[in-house]
User: What shape does this take?
Amino acid sequence: MRVLLFATTTGYQVRAFDEAAAALGVELQLATDRCDQLEDPWRDRAIAVRFHEPALAVDTIAAFAKAMPVDGVLAVGDRPATMAAAVAEALRLPWHSHAAAQATRSKLRTRQRLRDAGLPVPDFGVVGSEHDLAAWADRGPVVVKPVVLSGSRGVIRADTPTTLRRAWARVSQLLAQPDIRAMRDPDSAFILVETFIPGREFAVEGLLSHGRLQVLAIFDKPDPLYGPYFEETLYVTPSRASARVQRAMESAVDAACRALGLTHGPIHAECRVNDHGVFILEVAARPIGGICARALRFKGPKGATATLEALLLRHAIGARVDRWTREPGASGVMMIPIPGPGVLRGMDGVDRARAVPGIDDVVLTAKVDQTLVPLPEGATYLGFIFARADSPSDVESALRTAHACLAVRMDRAVPVI
Ligand SMILES: Nc1ncnc2c1ncn2[C@@H]1O[C@H](COP(=O)(O)OP(=O)(O)O)[C@@H](O)[C@H]1O
Ligand SMILES: [Mg+2]
Assistant: This one.
């Protein structure tokens, strides 16, 4: 069996897929647009593709697949997920359709499809000029966001005409930055404005098999996300929401997948729940981002255990995964926020944080001397804290206690970017 893995980095998740493939006897072939930056830890050399040239990339992979038959695809990250869908379609492998994966990449198309399917959505519209912004000036709290970025980058809440103008100008400036223009995505210039949805927020990790949704985990996000910026911090599973609310979330995610045309492969959805129901914020055609996946482990038939990546690899080769469920007990992750702009000089208290009961690991991903840019412009975290315990509240308090042990050393002098 051979599975193609689309990725732009060789981070945790790619290594986890590699380990899972070795254990299952599956040959994993990497396809990436970063061949020049890889150390080539692969049996075969990675296939070089350009994610912004999907037609060409599909031809390259189709030529490869003629010589080396491919049984499934997987992807790490948003752009690779769209590429994987295009390739799966060309190779006639079961997967999310390319159109569906593309729709999930655009917050505008996502909103349109959910609205057209009759699902609850906030009022929304693309705002291309300060002039168009006037229509939103008296709408109460709204959220300004780029149509294609992720990780809450450029997402800003505005409650007054003045803050709205400032937010829109700030997002416009962000979208003019070289790293965003380098994505060469035609949608990356657009800004969406939508009404603010109050409520509690959750993330739903799922796996679709020929249109049938298997919910792998529902994560509570116990830190309030009121804005003006929306930094992700805590994810804790299982959810403490009532069984009724959890069922409502599952059926809302199921309906959203249908509306978007997602049918086969992993999904990561985010939603807000209030008295009016479940509002799907977005559904990504890929698993939970990178290292956060370590918060999930599964148990299967005959006492077998698996990482999320091992489960997804089984699914990619057409093996049954419906008897796998999340491990017993609770788990969670804290994405360690960047305290402010500056240059990272070090982190104290890591050993103390690791020693907190329930803490599995503390992983620092930011590098010493790295310039840290907080949200809404930035796109990084300091690192991640993982916990496992009997109950979700024990996980949450372990994560908070461990986080409180950490002392970030930074030079606050803001460098000129
Ligand atoms: N309309 C909205 N109402 C309330 N909160 C929102 C709204 N849109 C976005 N947010 C907040 O901002 C976060 C990031 O927005 P999202 O659209 O998911 O963009 P991203 O792809 O960057 O994650 C959400 O998780 C949520 O907390
Ligand atoms: Mg999101």
In short: The CA atoms of residues 236 and 396 lie 7 Å apart. The longest strand covers residues 200-209.
